[in-house]
Amino acid sequence: MTVATMTAPPDGGPETNRRDPSPVITRDLLLKAIGAVMPIAVVLLMVYFSVNTTAFLTVNNLLTVITQNAPLIIISMAFAMLLMSGYVDLSVGSTMAVSGVAGALAFGPLGFLGGAAVAVGVGALVGAVNGGLIGYLAISPIVVTLGMLAVGRGAAMTLSPDPLYGFNDTVRAFGTGSALGISYIAWVAIAVAAICILVMSFTALGKHIMAIGVNTRAAFLTGIKVRTTIFSLYVAVGAAAGVAGLVLVSRLDSAPAGTLGAGFEVTVLSAVLLGGIPFTGGRGSLWRVLLGVWFISVLRNGLTLMNVGSEMVNIVSGIVLIIAAGLEALRMYLRRKL
Question: What single DSSP character describes residue 48?
């Protein structure tokens, strides 16, 4: 008779059918490494510009960076919330233009507050059209918002064939004034960012946005009003674009319909993707989006201080967008395959 023997595992414990954990460990380490790329890149970028230009690392310049990029902060916050739900808006630059021009036209008869209300209202209206077509009629968000990109720019140029400029003292005061050493424009951006972060962190809407991004059908079956939520997000993005248009017009003291907000879609998308929000939605952090915004802002400011031409700045910004998309693709591959 042959006696069967059982060989104990090397650690001396009971014999088990355990799966090799190394692929999971490797995946987690790689995902953490990808997540650390942006903070490290921001630090290295700031160090580089600090070494190569004495004007960069000063309080005045850093506050200027925030002021100059207030429109980017404002739109990126709302845009990121929309992208977390799995939807996108490629018309934000044109919405800025038509909102800013409409508000500028209203400054004269209605004053600053009236013009501000018009700018935000027009932006929200554009968002409502996008949200109605996408949320309720289920038309492709790419098709709808690309169409609105053209419509919005055309509408802005129709409203004002010639650039508007030279607004009243209240508008200029808003665009150039400050409180506690921080510009009014920067305060607006900070307020919008704080509101969006609070919504995503502490409200049911934030949870619903994430649930829709993870699985739209499952979100619907749990009782979430998917179409209404998507509609509301597009209205919010449009309103944010209206605020950004108002801010930019006030700071420039001008409303050039042909160039106001032109190409802003690429900048916003770059910042949000750098912040780790995937196109598929379902996850992300607005804090990391702010980090992505800061990276783009520092990059543009530093290159300008180094007298790099605007053409090269655009080229570098495009490369950054491609890199951001590549990192997100790698992240998705690791989550899916390993």
Answer: H
Question: Which of 211, 181, 213 is closest to 85 using CA atoms?
Answer: 213
The angle at the Cα of 334, spanning 331 to 338, to the nearest 5 degrees, equals 170
Give residue for tokens 């655009």: 314
Q: Which of 99, 115, 117 is nearest to 107 (CA)?
A: 115
Give residue 21's identity as a one-letter amino acid code: P
Contacts of 147 (CB under 8 A, 6+ apart): none
Between the alpha carbon of residue 57 and those of residues 23, 46, 220, 324, the distances in Å are 43, 8, 49, 26
Residue with tokens 């944010």, as numbered in its chain: 240
Which has the closest alpha carbon to 246: 112, 89, 152? 112
Half-sphere exposure of 64 (CA within 13 A, CB side): 12
Coil, strand, or helix at residue 83?
helix
Measured CA to CA, the distance from residue 241 to residue 233 in angstroms comes to: 12
b vs e for 250-276, b when ≥16 Cβ sit within 10 Å of the residue's Cβ?
Answer: bbeebbbbeebbeebbbbbbbbbbbbb
pLDDT tens per residue across all 338 residues of the chain:
444 444 444 454 444 445 555 555 676 677 676 667 778 888 888 898 898 888 888 889 999 999 999 999 999 999 999 999 999 999 999 999 999 999 999 998 999 999 999 999 999 999 999 999 999 999 999 999 999 999 999 999 999 888 888 888 898 899 889 999 899 999 999 999 999 999 999 999 999 999 999 899 999 999 999 999 999 999 999 999 999 999 999 998 888 888 888 888 888 988 898 888 888 777 888 998 999 899 889 988 888 888 887 778 778 877 877 877 777 777 777 766 65
Interatomic CA distance for residues 105 and 118, integer angstroms: 9
Question: DSSP secondary-structure letter at 2?
Answer: P
Q: State pTM to two decimals.
A: 0.86
What whole-number distance in Å separates Cα of residue 184 and Cα of residue 249?
A: 14
